[in-house]
């Protein structure tokens, strides 16, 4: 008798625990939460019945299925994409595409919430190759922003059908073959040397104009030529370590006059005296 009571009591406890557990599962399955950056689609018998925003919501346990969709900005990296330019030069390009999901229901029905990134990446890869093929290498290097804008428009034209909005696209890097890099380096060096020669030539041209004006001014006044000559002799005579022979044409001596010759003699005498003292 006691054994039967114990067995009955054990069965009751097992049923009670099972009932509580099952009831807890039902209650737990009746509610679900949606994060602030998500929207959740409720599937009932294979059909989307509603879209839930952030917060606590209810569903029919064991019948309804939740499909969360992340609404935050997502990126698709296009790394090491080989392409050929219009002038038949092979390059490697890195790009990135930024996108957001605007219509979760359309995304789930058209492409699926787990496959859209791969689909966008494949379409973006083919799109960037098509766009680069329309540009020469020089135009490609000069119009990176324009190419990125075309990539955004082309990818967005497809993803709009899936409920995805492409917010931006950027060209991160363009890698040239090693022989092209050397050619560009030689070209850049040649351009720098050309600019340096042009700058030097312009400076000499300006200097020649100034010297011509100075010569014209000196030619107008013999006294100016005499003063310039004396100034030159004064500068040269400061160094007593060398003997300086200063040759002057006859025309200059005539223009200098008697006063100029006396001044030159005075300078020569003073320089000789200083040399003797040393």
Strand content: 15-25%
According to CATH, the fold-level topology of the largest domain is Tetrahydropterin Synthase, Chain A
* Global outline: rod-shaped
**What structural class is derived from the secondary structure elements?**
alpha+beta
> How many beta-strand elements?
8
- Provide the gyration radius in Å: 46 Å
CATH architecture of the largest domain: 2-Layer Sandwich
Under CATH at level 1, the class of the largest domain stands as Alpha Beta
Oligomer: single chain
Query: Residue share in helices?
Result: 55-70%
User: Biggest sheet: strands side by side, in what order?
Assistant: 3-2-5
Based on the model shown, name its key terms.
278 residues, alpha+beta, Tetrahydropterin Synthase, Chain A, three-stranded antiparallel sheet, 8 helices, rod-shaped
Please tell me about this protein's structure.
There is one protein chain. The protein is α+β, with helices and mostly antiparallel strands and 278 residues long. The chain has four domains: 2-70, no CATH class; 74-176, Band 7 domain (Tetrahydropterin Synthase, Chain A, 2-Layer Sandwich), CATH 3.30.479; 178-220; 222-278. 58% of the residues lie in helices and 23% in strands. The protein has helices at residues 2-30, 104-110, 116-132, 137-142, 144-159, 178-220, 222-236, 250-277, and strands at 31-34, 38-44, 47-52, 55-58, 64-70, 74-84, 90-101, 164-175. A three-stranded antiparallel beta sheet has the order 3-2-5, with no helix packed on it. α3 (116-132) crosses α5, α6 packs across α7 (222-236) and α7 (222-236) runs parallel beside α8 (250-277).
């Amino acid at each position: 008798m006691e054994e039967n009571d114990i067995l009955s009591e054990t069965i009751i406890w097992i049923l009670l625990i099972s009932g509580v557990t099952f009831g807890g599962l039902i209650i737990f399955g009746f509610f679900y939460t949606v994060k602030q950056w998500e929207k959740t689609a409720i599937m009932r018998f294979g059909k989307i019945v509603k879209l839930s925003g952030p917060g606590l919501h209810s569903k029919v346990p064991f019948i309804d299925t939740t499909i969360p969709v992340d609404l935050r900005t997502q990126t698709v990296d296009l790394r090491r994409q080989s392409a050929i330019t219009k002038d038949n030069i092979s390059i490697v390009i890195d790009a990135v595409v930024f996108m957001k999901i605007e219509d979760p229901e359309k995304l789930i029905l058209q492409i699926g919430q787990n496959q859209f990134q791969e689909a966008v990446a494949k379409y973006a890869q083919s799109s960037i190759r098509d766009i680069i093929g329309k540009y020469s290498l020089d135009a490609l290097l000069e119009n990176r922003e324009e190419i990125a804008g075309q990539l955004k428009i082309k990818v967005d034209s497809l993803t709009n059908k899936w409920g995805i909005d492409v917010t931006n696209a950027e060209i991160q890097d363009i890698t040239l073959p090693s022989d092209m890099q050397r050619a560009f380096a030689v070209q850049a060096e040649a351009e720098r040397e050309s600019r340096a020669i042009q700058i030097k030539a312009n400076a000499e041209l300006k200097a020649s104009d100034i010297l011509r004006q100075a010569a014209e001014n000196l030619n107008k006044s013999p006294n100016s030529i005499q003063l310039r000559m004396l100034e030159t002799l004064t500068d040269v005579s400061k160094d007593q370590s060398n003997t300086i022979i200063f040759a002057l044409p006859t025309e200059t001596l005539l223009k200098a006059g008697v006063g100029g010759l006396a001044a030159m003699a005075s300078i020569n005498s003073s320089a000789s005296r200083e040399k003797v003292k040393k």
